[in-house]
Design goal:
Number of helices: 13
Strand order of the largest sheet: 7-6-8-9-10-14-15
Distance between the termini: 75 Å
Structural class: alpha/beta
Strand content: 15-25%
Number of strands: 18
Shape: globular
Helix content: 40-55%
Largest sheet: 7 strands, mixed
């Protein structure tokens, strides 16, 4: 039997060991990997962005069920910039400098992305941007998961010009008045000119965010389309203005066979959410819910289960968020850390079999190679895929149709190491 003095010596050591274990366990519980979610949950863009917040939450929940990453649970940090571009920058700085998030999934409009870009570059954060955009950019701190113009806008116009697409010869470039529509339309105008389209056969119209009075504009579109040449509208209208636009098209009985609208910024979720079914009109994306693939079945079921079957609708930016999250997680495991510099390096060459049914890959220009698809709205308000590319298309960060841009290369690997230079940064290495 041990002496009283011996027990007196052992007990403090045992208590100390127990205390260390308790404190360590508590710290382990607090040692999460914080994930920033930077999407508008109110304001004009909430109709499009709110679901992306829930998509990230779904992916975090799924990853945590698998044990998290690097033995640590993932913790969402949600903010609402409320469709205010200045607020996006403020909230991004808060996420990076105070919340110390490892990564941010967020933004929709290019105005919001442009607002946060200098913050991410200054603080060396990592943003996964999930929406198609105008290109003309490549930041070392942003991975662009949506389509560049050569993966969406250009193929959409090319389809409409084809016999299959109706041999369109006249064009209305309709957009919300900010950087994405203006830059996209600049590229499209240059492309159309290269295809021999006369400036007289192109008209450009811009409206403010949240625009609700569409009667006069739809009348202008109808008048422009009544002058003897097959006409189409390329729409880069964003946010809830789309609901008013499509209602006015229906009110003025604009026939999709006569003047089809090709949307680049709206999908099934926004249309069905407002009980709008503009049958026969079109959209160009890299993914539609109607795609028949094993990966898509899993994705749609995952979303429906997360919502307890209340919401079964998926869309392109949701798929882009899914791709970005999975690639980031793979890169973290590969790097063995959430350190931004290490994860960024590990991102190059990441690939997954996406819900689109295609294997998509991240290139060193921070853009994906993705398939291109054209969908037509049917009577149930969903999209039938009427055309798709045979293989994934590599994104061009800079458009070859703009002379200054055509000279630029985006490549963050050696020897270029730049987002838009004319010569390699290390050409004399």
């Amino acid at each position: 039997m041990k002496s009283t003095s011996t027990l007196r010596g052992v007990m403090p050591r045992l208590f100390g060991l127990w205390l260390v274990l308790v404190v360590s366990a508590a710290h382990a519980g607090e040692d999460t990997i914080k994930i920033g979610i930077l999407h508008s949950l109110s304001g004009t863009m909430a109709i499009s962005e709110s679901v992306l917040k829930d998509t990230v939450l779904m992916l975090i929940e799924d990853q945590n069920r698998k044990g998290g990453l690097l033995g640590r649970k993932l913790e969402p940090v949600i903010v609402d910039p409320a469709s205010d571009w200045d607020a996006f920058a403020k909230e991004a700085r808060e996420l990076l400098s105070k919340q110390k998030v490892a990564v941010v999934f967020g933004c929709w409009t290019s105005a919001s992305r442009k607002s946060v870009l200098p913050v991410f570059e200054q603080l060396n954060g990592l943003l996964f941007y999930p929406v198609q955009y105008e290109g003309e950019e490549s930041s070392r701190n942003i991975f662009y998961m949506g389509a560049a113009p050569n993966q969406q806008a250009i193929p959409a116009v090319r389809y409409l010009m084809s016999r299959e697409g109706g041999e369109v010869r006249r064009w209305v470039l309709l957009g919300t008045d900010y950087v994405y529509p203006r830059t996209t339309n600049r590229i499209l105008s240059a492309y159309l000119a290269a295809e021999g389209v006369s400036p007289d056969d192109i008209t450009t119209i811009y409206t403010p965010f949240g625009h609700s009075e569409w009667q006069e504009i739809v009348e202008r579109i109808k008048a422009f389309g009544s002058e003897g040449k097959k006409t189409a509208v390329i729409s880069t209208v964003n946010g809830d203005a789309n609901t008013y636009f499509y209602r006015e098209l229906e009110a003025q009985r604009v026939d999709a066979n006569a003047i089809p609208v090709m949307a680049l910024s709206i999908g099934q979720r926004e249309l069905l959410g407002e009980d709008i079914a503009p049958v026969g009109h079109l959209a160009a994306w890299n993914y539609f819910q109607s795609i028949n693939s094993a990966e898509n079945e899993v994705f749609v079921k995952m979303w429906a289960d997360f919502n307890e079957q209340r919401d079964k609708i998926t869309n392109d930016p949701m798929e882009a968020t899914f791709i970005g999250f999975r690639m980031w997680a793979q890169a973290v495991v590969q790097a063995g850390t959430t350190d931004v510099d290490a994860v960024r390096q590990a991102m190059y060459g990441q690939r997954i079999k996406a819900p689109s049914g295609f294997e998509v890959v991240m290139n060193t220009n921070h853009h994906l190679s993705k398939p291109v698809m054209i969908g037509k709205i049917n009577s149930s308000g969903t999209f039938d895929v009427v055309w798709q590319s045979i293989n994934p298309v590599r994104a061009d960060a800079w458009s070859k149709y703009i002379p200054d841009s055509a000279k630029r290369t985006a490549d963050w690997s050696f020897p270029w190491v730049c987002g838009g230079c004319i010569e390699p940064t290390f050409k004399n290495w």
